[in-house]
Amino acid sequence: MADTARADVQGAVEPLPDRALRRVTLVLCVSQITTWGVLFYAFPVLATRIAEEEGWSLTTMMAGFTAAQVTAALLGLRVGRHLDRRGPRAAMAVGSAVGVAAILGFAAAPTLWWFLAAWALAGTAMSATLYPPAFAAVTHWGGDRRLGALTAITLVGGLASTVYAPLAAVLEQAGDWRTAYLVLAVPLALTVPLHWYGLGHPWTRTTAEPAATDDPPASDRDPLLRTPTFLLLVLAMTMAGLAIYAGVVNLVPLLAEDGLSIQVGAVALGIGGVGQVAGRLAYAPTLGRLGPDTRLVTVLAVTGALTLALAAVPRPLPLLFAIAFLAGTARGAFTLIQASAVSDRWGTSGYGARSGVLSGGVGLAAAGAPWLGAVAATTLGGYDAAFVVLAVSAFVAVGVVAGSPARTSLRR
């Protein structure tokens, strides 16, 4: 049976009226700050305490976090195809419900294996609730106004670490890590009805090329996905994602290794969230004026330099916090670059599937970031050395982008 919230045939997308688009943007702002905060940013703050209290290996727990990111990345293309055909309503509502189940699984975990299984469930939730589905929704419904909606969503989403990293630390201090997760499940549960009732606008099917049936998916035949230009862009974004996300999730362990408290690490993580907001506010009047590859190269070069700085400057605290803020600005700009990378180069047709592939690469990098960071620190003798490796990854990505100029072929 056809979904009543979409057209059964592919056609021209009708952007939402301003008022409806503002409502959708508000819904996604609330859901993104909540979902990122609960499913992603709480764990780096709580991980060290969980390892201490339960006697579980921190590296193994980070591997569980990695497995969640891998799950989300691998499901990204499938979710993207669903979005191109049916829209975000059901996917994001169900994803939120699965996320609540995962958080409750953390809180109840009697063993490390249970805890790791809950991370696999969390990865399924992430694939349907984090930025890629939200980006697909406003890119489809926003038309020429999509940059404003994308900016608003990432501005608010960028505050997730600012709000939820300190909140997780406070909840853990007031009770324990299990209590913290139980409390954090409440705001996440509220996003289920928010998605269901707030994202029910009509959806026009859009794929990379017309198809008479849903099987096989049109996106399987999209020639763009196999072009060198697209694949090199995916590679560069993946390497950039490794540097950026590993820097986020390993920041607290880096600072703890340098003798700073978990609370100081949480504050630095939160300041980075404020930096994300600043980076997104400044994006349109600064980087937005540049070409797609020029702004990506700029952000990657800055990211590499600041990652090196984090490894070298644990004190004084004001300088550390300033570096964390600047690193957050680069991270914030990168999120908008990721959101617009496909549409800036090849248009909005088939955005869900195309962006799903691109986001899948970034997601795999984010997946490997926690575990690879911990392994690199163990292998190289500390997190300082691991952060140097992350900086090199960002600089190599600069070279990949520089060798692959943007193309506008296959734009639809």
From TrEMBL:
Q: Where are the transmembrane segments?
A: 24-43, 55-77, 89-107, 113-135, 147-167, 179-199, 230-256, 262-283, 295-313, 319-339, 351-373, 385-406
Q: How does it sit in the membrane?
A: Multi-pass membrane protein
Q: Which PROSITE patterns match?
A: MFS (PS50850)
Q: Which Pfam families match?
A: MFS_1 (PF07690)
**Superkingdom of the source species:** Bacteria
Q: Which GO terms describe its molecular function?
A: transmembrane transporter activity
The protein's location, in the record's own words, is: Cell membrane
Alphabetized, the UniProt keywords read: Membrane, Transmembrane, Transmembrane helix, Transport
InterPro entries per UniProt: MFS, MFS_dom, MFS_Riboflavin_Transporter, MFS_trans_sf
- Location of the Major facilitator superfamily (MFS) profile domain: 20-409
Q: Does the keyword Transmembrane apply?
A: yes
Q: Spell out the GO cellular component terms annotated for this protein, sorted alphabetically and separated by semicolons.
A: plasma membrane
> Per its record, how is this protein called by name?
MFS transporter
